[in-house]
Amino acid sequence: MPLSALTGTRLRDRRIALGLRQAELAERVAISASYLNLIEHNRRRINDALLGRLAQALDLPVQAFQDGVGAAVLDNLRAAAARLPGAELERTEDFAGRYPGWAGLVTGLYQRVMGLERALEEVSDRMSHDPHLSASLHEVLSAVSSVHSTAAILADTEDIEPEWQARFLTNLQDDSKRLALGAEALVRYLDNAGQAEEQGFAAPQEEVEAWLAAANWQPGDLADLASSAARDMARAFIAQGEGDARALPMPAFTQAVEQIGPDPVQLAARFGADVMAAFRRLALLPDAQAGLVICDASGTLTFRKPLAGFALPRFGAACPLWPLFTALARPMTPVETVIEVAQGRRFRVLAFCQPRYPSGFRGPELREAAMLILPEADFLAPALAVGSTCRICQQSACAARREPSILTG
Q1: How far is it, in rounded angstroms, from Cα 145 to Cα 193?
Q2: pTM of this structure
Q3: Dihedral sign, CA of 71, 75, 76, 78?
Q4: Residues 6+ apart with CB under 8 A from 153
Q5: Domain boundary residue among 194, 218, 239?
Q6: pLDDT tens-digit series, residues 373-392
Q7: Total domains in the fold of the chain
Q8: Strand 301-305, strand 291-296: pairing
Q9: Phi and psi at residue 370, to the nearest 5°
Q10: At 310, phi and psi to the nearest 5?
């Protein structure tokens, strides 16, 4: 199948949507970042072998980056149409077949919008929760206001006394220096933001999750973790995984999943194990196509394994409509539902909360809830509309909204 003129653009949009840097993707497929940059800007042809490696690294079939009306193109067109009502969904395939170039452009723009929304979410979260960034922005804005005020006085006052004029000019010079220093520091900080792991800006949980994701969610070398806090968390994760493996041994567990399906309650009952262990085992099997979110009793996300198409917030509170929080309020009660995100994608979700009493009968109850996210979903079943976090959710009429979305003005 011939390559499309938009192949590079599609590769770039998919990489951005997955949150990968050029250097990371280039390393995975054994090419230089500069060569990948030329490919993504459609300035270099790409052979079938390299395209296959890129498609595998980006978790999409090769056909998604080539000509023709593939399922991925149609899915993206329908998802794009779901964002704005009025599109003729019944003519999607006809449109893509007659105008493949326009179909590629629409899906490319849609993926670009999704990537920009995720980038906007990340920047917004950083501005809301990063005190250093907030202070830097405040310093720059303060200096800009001072320069503007002083310059306005000098420009609008005709008969200003020489003594006062000298004072204003001195203030203008000082504020200009302060603005230059503040802007330089802010730019340097933002330039380093994309290298958070290397610079030590990431929280220990983020560092551990990135460490796991780099190794297909299997523990790697602890020496690759920069902070001691992250290494401590990783050791606890490894110890927990070893316990899960003893309770749910791999060959027997894999066979049970083939017979029963991804049902954590039945799987746990068969092996006499904790339901939470079954959740973790299902999501962390090698090459498992499943996402996992775990929270404590406060609702704080303590573990995040994403699934393509279902965004997980890096900072702040998640969507309160997630079945995860329904399960948190109903200990030992399985919760299963179909959810639909803003892009029109549906997922089958299983959630469960298990309490524990580490201090005994008179001690406090500690709750932990897990939500398994599976790509298969019944499209005929009614779905629960959810988002990632209120800050970027476009469901303006949601009764659970805590704050206005920055995407709707």
Answers
A1: 26
A2: 0.55
A3: positive
A4: 160, 168
A5: 194
A6: 998 766 667 888 888 877 77
A7: 3
A8: antiparallel
A9: -130, 150
A10: -120, 105
